[in-house]
Amino acid sequence: MELSKIRNFCIIAHVDHGKSTLADRMLEITHTVEMRNMQDQILDQMDLERERGITIKLAPVRMEWIPTNVEIRIRNDEQNSNLDIQSPDSEIINSKFVLNLIDTPGHVDFSYEVSRSLAAVEGAILLVDASQGIEAQTLSTLYSALEHDLEIIPVLNKIDLPAARPEEVKHEIIKLLGCSESDIIMASGKTGEGVENILNEIIKRVPAPKGDINKNLKALIFDSVYDPYRGVVSYLRVIDGQLKDSDEILLMQTNSQGRAEEVGIFRPKLIARSPLSAGEIGYCVTGFREVSQAAVGDTVTLKKAIADSPLPGYKKVKPYVFASIYVSEGDKYPELKDAIEKLKLNDASLSYEAERSEVLGFGFRCGFLGLLHMDIIRERLEREFNLDIVITSPTVEYHITKNNGEKMIVERASDMPEANSYQTIAEPWATLEIITPKDYIGNIMDIAQKKRATYKNTEYFDDGRALLKYQIPLAELIIDFYDQLKTVSSGYASMNYEILDWRQADLSKIDILIAEDRVDALSFIAFTPNSQSEARRIVKRLKELIPRQNFEVKIQAAIGGSIIASERISAMRKDVTAKLYGGDVTRKNKLLDKQKKGKKKMKQIGRVNMPSDIFIKVLKNE
User: Fold this and answer.
1) 105-109, 283-287, 402-406: least confident range
2) Containing domain of residue 534, as a range?
3) How far apart are the C-alpha atoms of 307 and 338, rounded to whole Å?
4) pTM score, two decimals?
5) What kind and span of H or E run contains 617?
């Protein structure tokens, strides 16, 4: 395939701005998918993606398009300049171009996958909802695209909506990109209006890929999936050289070695086609048994002709949010183990290790990329494997320096050493961007201040919205900040965050005792000046959430050996004297004493029954 006839691009958009719908119209117009096989969000393979209207796993597809009545811009590699053909060349106009689209996730949890997808293309469509305008996650991905020096094509989507305000949103885009109004394409992914124009503009504006077919193979892995029959299938962008069936391959970062059992392209199903040459996007069936062997961002080369250096930008994906997962019925633990192992096959970013809790039994301590990633794993365990699971409150990773200089990493509060055994403790911080209507700025600043956020600055848009920038501890962000943000802004605010660094802080471990037994799953780490008020809030919340038992239950919060907050749940009382119909008062006292002794014995050996969702609810402000 000639490099001048290839265009590689992706779509940048906030959640629910119509990215997958626009991709559907592109597939229809280019006849990539037959009409009888079309369905909404065809590139979203999971039911969960369709129901939530979000993209969780990126999806590439190869389309073919013959442009009409458009001036084609060709990248001249020798002069490194663009030549505009003023009068359309019929040979070029009637030529067939290959358009490789990568439909990427929009959520911050998958930002590394998005960054590798951006590295695999030369252009990006900036898709903005005409009714909602630019939102926080759009900005984040746009800045990443600009760092990769991609050609940005702004598209105003959903112009058919009654609530659309195209003129206002156009000014936002012009202010953001510094482009002219004529550069912005008006479109509707739902009706198909303007989609042909978008395809023509991709060919006109996005430069053709560079690459040398005669050099040693160098290909970027931008995603990997696990097929139960064929093993790991890697999604590749070939930078230099060629990859053919049966080639012996080497991955330069993980040093994994394998064989290209099959190579091909996406239409959007896997279609075998060998070879894949420089500038093309396709797949390679590696035969690996684990996706970690073909990590996102790694460089594929040939064993017999190794490339001079790996492609830049590779990093090992690291979880930032941790939670424990248990089953409500202890005998379902083997099923939970099998389910997590199967999810891990397709998700290298999920980490897990077995653990045991005195209250909840056997389970797994899992690491996630963020809250959305955690929520997706929880829902997949419940839906796909029919498990009734209990998931504890999410925590973050703390870096501790002990008195002897030894450094340790703590992911759960119960593992934190005693206060006098370490010198310093550091917690992760994140940069936070919030876009909101001006009317809600005061409310948002109030909740940010309560969450220990550090204010940086405010930028104002012409349409009456503002961009607030903060730095905030990740632990404060992951519990219920998003819920509170949506509440105080009537649902209008959007947020985006990125991990910044680790900073020393004055933190304390608070243990929760129920019926004088410490419950490890409820222990948490709090900012020391707020520890007493937070402990009081937690024990009061537990009093509301734990149902009454047949005996009195003490709920206590402790730092070390000191109780700093306490509540009691009174026992349910059965009227044991109801059956008496007369006689001396001593008969009544005898029954009451017997009941008292029974409750005392039950208090010693009784077990407190707690609802399965208590661990998520307890830390949230209601």
Assistant:
1) 105-109
2) 508-617
3) 39
4) 0.77
5) helix 614-617
Strand partners, 361: 357
**What is the chain's length?**
622
Q: What is the pLDDT of residue 87?
A: 38
CB 492 within 8 A of CB 498: no
Quick one: tokens of 100? Answer: 């490789």
37-66: per-residue pLDDT in tens? 666 656 655 555 455 555 556 788 999 998
Beta strands in 295-452 (DSSP E): 299-302, 321-327, 351-357, 361-368, 389-391, 398-402, 407-410, 422-437
Q: Tokens 């093993």 label which residue?
A: 231
**CATH no. for residue 514?**
3.30.70.2570
Residue found by looking up tokens 């978008």 in the block: 198
Residue that is last in its domain, among 340, 369, 391: 391
* Strand partners of residue 151: 123
Structural domain count of the chain: 5
Residues 465 and 522 in one domain: no
- In 10 A of CB 89, how many CB atoms? 12
Which are the contacts of 404, defined by CB distance < 8 A and separation ≥ 6?
none
Distance of CA 187 to the CA centre of its chain: 28
Which helix (H) or strand (E) element contains residue 114? Answer: helix 111-119
pLDDT digits (tens, 9 = 90+) for 498-528: 888 999 999 999 988 888 888 877 888 889 9
Run of H or E including 102? strand 97-103
Domain boundary among 452, 484, 504: 504
